[in-house]
Amino acid sequence: MNKIASNATIVLVHAAWADAFSWSAVIGPLLRAGVKVVAAQIPMTSLSSDVAALRMYLERAGAGPILLVAHSYAGAVITALEGDDRVRGLAFVTAMPPAEGETVGDLFFREPPHPMAPHLEPDAHGLLWMSEEGMKNAVGHRATEEQNAIRTAAQRPIALKCLGEAIKTPAWRTKPSWYLLTEDDRMFSPKTQRFVAERMNAQIRSLHADHAPQISSPAAVADFVLEAASVLL
Question: For residue 156, is it within any domain?
Answer without folding.
Answer: no
